[in-house]
Amino acid sequence: MFIAAVCWIIMDSFLLVCVCVCVCVLTGGLFVLAAWLHGDPRKVLHPTDSYGHFCGQKGTPNEGKPILFYFNLLKCTNPAVLINLQCPTTQMCVSRCPNRFTTYTEMQLQHKLGGGHWDYYRKFCKPGFNNPEKPVSQVLRDEDCPSMIVPSRPFLQRCLPDFTTLNGTVTVANRTRFHDALEIPRSVSDLQHAAKGITGLVDTKELGVKIVEDYANSWTWILIGLLMSLAVSLVFILLLRFTAGLLLWATILGVILLLAYGIWYCSNEWSQLQYKQGSEVAIVEVGLQTDLQVYLQLRQTWIIFLASLGAMELSILLVLIFLRRRVRVAITLLREASRAVGHIMSTLFFPVVTFLLLTVCVSYWAVTALYLASSGDAVYKVTSPDGSCPYVNSTCNPETFSRSNVSRSPLCLGSQCLFAFYGGETPYHRYLFLLQLSNLLVFFWLVNFSLALEQCTLAGAFASYYWARRKPQDIPSCPLFSSFSRTIRYHTGSLAFGALILAVVQLLRVTLEYVEQKLRGLDNSLSRFIMCCLRCCFWCLEKFIRYMNRNAYIMVAIYGKSFCTSAREAFFLLMRNVVRVAVLDRLTDFLLFLGKVLIAGSVGDKLGFGLRFLRSTVSNLSFSQQTVAMGAYLIAHSFFNVYAMCVDTLFLCFCDDLERNDGSSERPYLMSPELHSILGKASQSR
């Protein structure tokens, strides 16, 4: 019996996948727990010095010193290094940033001449250091003081150079070039490269303050605009029951007329360029140009436009001539979807549940990523001036190093315990990047599962409407809640498996984007071509899997079979009705996109009219208007996703109804009378 059970488990690949998934979940949970135990988000939110003390923390020597100062900012070659506290230089907490430009050598010279520069310079040295006569080489070796200080201003509680533009040139204290304490020539561009992107972030911060002020002044109008979009979206979906055919035929007619006008315009432009000198040049000979007007002066460009528009016009006309029955079926399905939504109005508000689940997923990912990013500790290494010390590159503790055996060793005279990096030497710290990727995979998985839960729940509710013999009398009470209960109880594994497949593909796409960023600086045409092909292939793969998952969830909701079986049946069912699929998808997508744009544009325009009365108090009218337009589009997208799910569910039910039944008294069709009248006796032949 035991051997038979083992053999059955080995043969069942789907069960093996589920076991692997459970192992991955448990392993990922252990990694997340380790991240929450090791991480400290305060390292990202608040700066820390080289000894791991938070700047400005009460009860510590850094109380009253809330700003972080870097001894050698030139070692910080990336702004992300500053934010993640991984700049390999001594970091001290100071009460204020320096406001003058000087080096340690200049300070020593002024101090010998009787100046008071040392009292100011020592504020940026290590606490307790008070020996301005110490040689520069030893000071820099022991990292007692910075080699130079530059005028800076605090940003994110960190001292960054105060860049100013003088006659179009970026300067610091009106300087473009300078020398450090070792008389090494430096330029402002070096500092700018070290703090790359920081000046732009300052402008972004100022813009953010203005945006917050605008929100404070116009939040009532923004709320009104969003409520308007909510009402308009609801009314638009309900009106589709009566105006779906009119909207679709008007849209098709408008597209035909628009394409005809485009053909006439392109032919007119081509005829005008026929006698113009230089217009006969081929596009290949012109090459890549940033000015698009160059291409518009070529006859070949207008020939390409003319051929493309003519092909599109001909395709639409052929579809209307030879596939008019399919178009009528698509329009009827759209009306039927509006009728189904009208009978199950609760489905329109299910996206609120999805929004809450997505909020939880995003919060989980952000907090875990923050803990992972802050898991590193300050690591110090032993350094020796001549390299003879056998303890070089071994870890040390700067607070106890002077009392250790390393500093007393004859071979380690002059050795120091200096900051090396933020991180750790345990396997956990070495694989933090892989843990971040694992966290991202879990995030994609949870997001896709939340969306799959919505799709399967809605599909079950709308399928109960289609298969009801008498509508709406035979529709179950609370169909949405019943479908949600069935999905949670019986179909969770199928949804998780489909979501995992899509999440893996999405993670591969993110990895390819990361690799492309790394290879962007290389002048290798072959690598760029390969990366472009891979990105295109994985993009197509993601779209295909997303589409098949959607239809698989519909079949899971209808028949309750496993994910793989449902995906296979949905695929072959769609392939047997490929023409109907193409017509219905294109018409539905275009109609819903038109509705989204219409709602977003109209609500945004109404908000702009209202905000004109607040022009004296709202500093950025266009941004508030764009915010509401985007919010209106997202609200309309949520409502129309429900409608699109209804159309897809009814379509699969319709195709399955045609194959399972023949319209006889023994096997009657369960479709609506309107669909049945359109099909007629030719419904079986298709």
Automatic annotation (TrEMBL):
Q: Record's Pfam families?
A: Choline_transpo (PF04515)
Which Gene Ontology molecular function entries are recorded, alphabetically?
A: antiporter activity
Q: What is its main location?
A: membrane
Reactions mediated catalytically: choline(out) + n H(+)(in) = choline(in) + n H(+)(out)
Q: Which subcellular locations apply to this protein? A: Cell membrane
Q: Name one GO cellular component term.
A: plasma membrane
Positions of transmembrane segments: 12-37, 219-239, 246-265, 302-323, 344-367, 442-467, 488-508
Keyword annotations from UniProtKB, A to Z: Antiport, Cell membrane, Glycoprotein, Membrane, Transmembrane, Transmembrane helix, Transport
Bilayer disposition of the protein: Multi-pass membrane protein
**Role noted for this protein:** Choline/H+ antiporter. Choline transporter.
Q: Which family does it belong to?
A: Belongs to the CTL (choline transporter-like) family.
This protein is called Choline transporter-like protein
